[in-house]
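PT: before anyone asks, these are the final sequences, not the draft ones from last week. 757 residues across everything. Please model them as a single complex and drop the result in this thread when it's through.
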Amino acid sequence: MSDTQKYAPGSHPDLPPPPGTIGVIGWLRANLFSDITNTVMTLLSLYFLYWFLNASMSWFLLDAVVNANSRAECREMADGACWAVITKRIGQFIYGFYPVDERWRPNLAFVGLFIAVLPLLYPKTPFRRHMLWFSAAYPVIAYYLLCGGIFGLTEVGTNTFGGFMLTMIVGVTGIAASLPLGIALSLGRQSRLLSVRVISIAFIEFMRGVPLITLLFVASTMLNYFLPPGTTFNLLLRVLIMVTFFAAAYIAEVIRGGIQAIPKGQYEAAQALGLNYWQTTRLITLPQALKISIPGIVNTFIGLYKDTTLVVVIGLLDPLGIGRAALADAKWNGLSTETYMFVALFFFVSCFAMSRYSLWLEKRLSTEHK
Amino acid sequence: MDTLTRIWRHEESRAVVIQILVIAAVFGSFGWLVSNLVTNFAALNKNFGFDFLLQPAGYDINQYLIEYTNRSSHLRAAIVGLLNTFLVAIFGIVLATIMGVILGIIRLSNNWLARNLTYWYIEFTRNVPILLHILLWHGIIINTLPHPKRALAFGDVSFLTNRGFYVPKPIAEAGIEVVYLAIVAAITFAVFFSRRARKVQAETGKQLPVFWTNLGVLLTVPVAVYLLAGSPLSFDIPALKGFNFKGGMHLLPEFVALTFALAIYTAAFIAENVRAGILAIHKGQREAAEALGLRPGKVMRLVILPQARRVIIPPLTSQYLNLTKNSSLAIAIGYMDLVATLGGITLNQTGREIETMMLVMGMYLLISLAISAGMNWYNNAVKLVDR
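LR: through. Structure below.
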């Protein structure tokens, strides 16, 4: 008599799944070795990973030299990366030529930046309402903290700004200033008023049509021709204005996409409720349009942040400028890979963090049923 | 006061008032800028004009697609620069598209390891500024590749050195026209055969072996004609003479670094566009196609890709546009593109900042507007008709 007859039909207890389909082995089978192509790809990937880790680990870490006084000294010690070019100038890479004694000021401003953006980025921040006042005041505080001139702080010229500090200044100011301008431009582009519309379109298309580098050239070399004779105008400020205009044009297009994605019924409903243009914009259009365009806006911000490197072409000393200056030094000649890898890592970390934040925000704001 | 309030309260007259104010403000500021310009030019004894374009340029350009010497005019130098921009853009776009599509498809593969490796590769590549990519690759070529004397050789015909890449240069000989004709004929045949096959399938339901027939014809016919015509193509192979290579085709390190960096950077963005485009197709489409009994290849080719194309092409075009604009960073490594010639050396030599920058910006604007116009036309052609 066989086992099967011991159970009435339908009352057999569930058997465990076959051993090859669960746990680690099941996962491996399903994801890495499901068929021949898959297995080949796994093996190729493994080989590539091995080759890459092997080569990069020895170059980056195991054979690398951190402390030396010149490239020749590095080469005597080991064959790997010569990080000494970074470690010897780390101060410049971070602060540029900001006076050494005053470096606590950028540090403080940096900490302040986090306190200022926290309530904006993360709605569950404790004491959010009070902290938003600090956020609003932060631009002024940061300006006086960095440039000095009041409360006995020594004045520091913007020509000493450099390194990652400069990247942060241009990036953060550009981001903060381009969003409102971009919103205004996108509304202008959708305006019923012909002249407003034409001007917005012309501005947006012009800014999007030319490379940023040409705008920076204009800012650095020929802006003086367009200003009354004798006007002097801080170079950093000119760059900030150009970067802001450039990013605002892109943001305007992203938001326009969001505005156009709103169903017509929303406007009709707003009109039926008797809302006027500004009420409709503030209560109906923008909240929905901005939500849809968040990924695009953050992408534009990341683009702007990366584009801050272009200021090196007009002679500002961002990390790339500092790096190139170090490479021009006969002692460090030829260590371009180390220098650029270091800067690349900095940008990767900050831009990747921004894109992750955008993903998180998208998920939080999503009201769609999945 | 009362009339003013009434005008402001009335919607249409308010619109007119606002428009007049806006126009006045814009023209006013333009007029202010131009009047400042005129004052400044008068003070510096400068005049405005484009006559400098016809004067001899007096500088050398290390890569030219049309005849150029340092006695040629600034205008010709600008055109050489523009062609160099196009050259980098075209090579970059082709490379970026190929790499991007491959990466995008691997990103969707069911292999966990390949998928994640590609993910991290893409994230790293696109989160690093393009200028850094360009400088990094240029540095690698200049600093880590060997001198010509110890060049990395590929089969003794191609060489990688720190002064650029040397590859064989094809030289057409008499009789090559027949081979060109054969290639054209093979392509024509392939096009006609595909149409014929589609018609046959529509009428009888029979499927002709289109892919293999066309592949065979495209491969064998030109090769056969080439051999029959007595191999009318020779190669100028680079050879080490003294300290450097002579002969062959010399790809400058700047050109290689710029093309490569632009392609790698843009490919990461294209990969994400391709992935998003394929994912945007509702999974019901795939299921329906499978339920109809289509094989996986056909599901992709006949159902998924035609729909994904509509989603992928617009961002793809803007990536192409970005690549073209990013090629202006050539100036950082000294590749002689439009910005480096007209907006760089010509500007410095003639002191005509306004005129040269106007031309450079106008040129880029023209390229952008042309691409956007093409884009809008395409969008209208393929968009879903909404009822």
